Amino acid sequence: MSWFLANLPYIGQLTALHLAQSVIPVVVGFGLALPLARLALGRRADGRSTEAYTAAGRVRKGAVVNGAALLYTVPSLALFVLMPLVLGTSITSPLNVYVALTIYVVAMMVRSAVDAFESVSPITLEAATAVGYTPLHRFWQVELPLSLPVMIAGLRVALVSNISMVSVGAVIGIQSLGTLFTDGLRRDLPAEIITGILLTLVLALVLDRLLALVGAALTRWRKP
């Protein structure tokens, strides 16, 4: 406890960095995953997925979903090290973590978004079309709201995974709560290591709960 209180400003700085490196990739990755999921499914004028009707649609869906899943198999540390070669940044640049974790979020959320859109009944989409909804209005006012429960579940997994993987960046010198692990090991300070572990767990639990509450607020139409 004495080490924690003596280093509170430093811990607060690392927590803020960890929070930013966890949340921003989720927001950006989610925004990129949505159009990829739409591309995977395709939509006819009546709102039905073209994947259900054509071999080309099934191939397209498989290519997008499996391609995204393949990205997730790349080890996080390897991707962090690869990013400087691709982006032209220094090895310790936080941008490496932001881009790498955005890729991971896209990889996770494409599958979740496809499942979410497929969870919406085609009959509901046809009914929306029949009463005069344009494809754009149908998406924003019918399809997206009804798919939110599945999407929120996927986002919760992506967010908690990111909070965990951000710590890996500390191995190559990118500051986050993971820095408490590496510094604590190097200086043989168990209090520093335990602080890093506990704060990472607390951050994951708090953000997961907040996202669950946001999801509940956006889907009040669901039965309890």
UniProtKB/TrEMBL annotation:
It is found in: Cell membrane; Membrane. InterPro entries: ABC_transp_perm/SBD, MetI-like, MetI-like_sf. CDD domains: TM_PBP2. It holds the Pfam family BPD_transp_1. Residues 11-211 form the ABC transmembrane type-1 domain. GO terms for biological process: glycine betaine transport; transmembrane transport. The keyword Chaperone does not apply. GO terms for cellular component: plasma membrane. It comes from the Bacteria. It is a multi-pass membrane protein. Keywords: Membrane, Transmembrane, Transmembrane helix, Transport. Its main location: membrane. The chain crosses the membrane at residues 20-41, 62-83, 95-114, 157-181, 193-218. Belongs to the binding-protein-dependent transport system permease family. This is ABC transporter permease subunit.
